[in-house]
């Protein structure tokens, strides 16, 4: 009886399926990201678009990147928009730059945080396509209930250059509710992804809320790449949007913490490093062609 019953004690956790160096204490990664310079100085900042369902954690991801880079919790993008059907809605396109340590200067990348894609009233696929191509300037309002104004027309760029385009498309999906995202939303997101693919724009998925799907990861974030549950959710995200698992970065956003911590920073900065490399490669390819 004895020996045949002694199966492995922790079936969920064995060897990590993606390697990450937790012991480098985040400093190397921080240095890599903070010293990053785009190959083409005319395309500065690199423009990274965050898109995805309402409440996926887009604003929280930008805030997390900002916090990891500043070494303290920051909340520049308004997160946690509690949504209800009679809300007033301003879908303004807003670019968030990240300050570096020199006063008045910024890192050479910026995030465009747009309101969630929503069935009834949210940003629409066509709007995102215009954004990808660089037609939409900051301050343009995507509001399907409001007619386009003169001011909006001024914020429409008819002749965008490479610097105005989106250089990396980031789909943000929440690990805990990815199974429940409705088909129409997924279909819309795939359409955006396909448009980006046709334009040659690289794309990644940031999978948020990993703490909500795996209690052991919630307790110890370093278990992230040994958790089968996380891997399974990443595969689900990959199948839903058709993005390879290798381009999916699971993160735990800063959303209720008072302080940053090295483990969360490492995941966030690793995702950022890859996004920047993809964006930079795209810009260089566009110049060549
Ligand atoms: N547990 C957990 N909660 C998170 C995480 N990221 C975001 N949240 C929470 O999820 C909720 C929605 O986050 P937001 O960042 O506002 O989501 P959003 O995608 O910007 O939403 P919209 O702008 O409304 O489309 C907030 O209550 C956050 O605190 C995470 O990694 N883990
Ligand atoms: Mg938001």
Describe the structure.
Helix 4 runs parallel beside helix 6 (183-198). The chain is 35% helix and 12% strand. It has a six-stranded mixed beta sheet, sandwiched between helices. It has a single domain, classed as Rossmann fold (3-Layer(aba) Sandwich), CATH 3.40.50. The chain starts with a helix and ends with a helix. By secondary structure, it is α/β, with parallel strands linked by helices. The chain has helices at 2-5, 27-34, 58-70, 125-133, 150-154, 183-198, 215-219, 228-241, 262-288, and strands at residues 46-51, 94-99, 106-113, 168-174, 203-208, 248-250. A hairpin with a 6-residue loop joins strand 2 and strand 3. The structure holds guanosine-5'-triphosphate and magnesium ion.
Distance between the termini: 68 Å
Q: Largest sheet, if any? A: 6 strands, mixed
> Which series of helices and strands comes N to C?
HHEHEEHHEHEHHEH
Q: Tell how many strands the DSSP assignment holds.
A: 6
User: What CATH architecture label applies?
Assistant: 3-Layer(aba) Sandwich
Question: Which oligomeric form is depicted?
Answer: single chain
Q: Shape from CA axes?
A: globular
Molecules bound to protein: guanosine-5'-triphosphate, magnesium ion
SS-based class? alpha/beta
Low-confidence stretches are 82-90
Can you give the mean pLDDT?
86
Query: What is the alpha-carbon Rg in Å?
Result: 20 Å
- What is the highest CATH level, the class? Alpha Beta
Widest sheet, order of strands: 2-3-1-4-5-6
Q: Please identify which CATH superfamily we are dealing with.
A: P-loop containing nucleotide triphosphate hydrolases
